[in-house]
Design a protein that fits this description.
Largest sheet: none
Distance between the termini: 44 Å
Number of strands: 0
Number of helices: 4
Structural class: mainly alpha
Mean pLDDT: 86
Order of helices and strands: HHHH
Strand content: under 5%
Radius of gyration: 20 Å
Low-confidence stretches: none
Shape: elongated
Oligomer: single chain
Length: about 160
């Protein structure tokens, strides 16, 4: 369903601009190109996350509607969209892990060879990855709601 894809992309774009823009403004205030770069990456990654979520929602919709109406083609299309969303997510995770491993190697090499510039570069890369991940997880938590809410009424 193209409507859900479009809504996911729009939500990701808007959220990315708000979060990334906020981080960029903070970078501007403290005159830090590093923080501004984090803002740019937050915007890009959040927009991509919205796009993937929209594609997954569309796939779920098409699978469900296809099963309810016995439309095998619609269900097959939905499964394809779900598969594409999963593959894109998996590629992103692999890239993220590779980035963190590369940054860790830079840090270790910098320490072993007493190369302060390489060590600094590795630390900055890891810090950037941590900041982007923390902001991304924060967005998911906001959408998902507070954790550990006890509705049983007991203390």
């Amino acid at each position: 369903m193209d409507f859900l894809k479009g809504m996911g992309k729009l939500a990701g774009d808007v959220t990315g601009r708000v979060l990334g823009g906020t981080v960029r403004v903070a970078g501007e205030l403290v005159n830090s190109p590093y923080i501004k770069e984090i803002g740019n990456d937050v915007e890009r990654i959040t927009a991509k996350t919205g796009e993937i979520a929209g594609q997954a929602a569309s796939g779920v919709w098409d699978v469900g509607a296809g099963l309810l109406t016995a439309d095998k083609q619609q269900a097959k299309t939905g499964l394809g969209e779900l598969g594409d969303a999963a593959a894109t997510t998996a590629k992103g995770v692999v890239y993220g892990v590779e980035y963190v491993v590369e940054s860790g190697k830079d840090m270790v090499t910098g320490i072993k060879e007493n190369d302060k510039e390489l060590l600094k570069e590795g630390v900055m890369k890891l810090g950037k990855a941590a900041a982007i991940t923390a902001i991304g997880i924060g967005v998911v938590d906001i959408v998902d709601g507070p954790d550990g809410t006890d509705t049983s009424g007991s203390a």
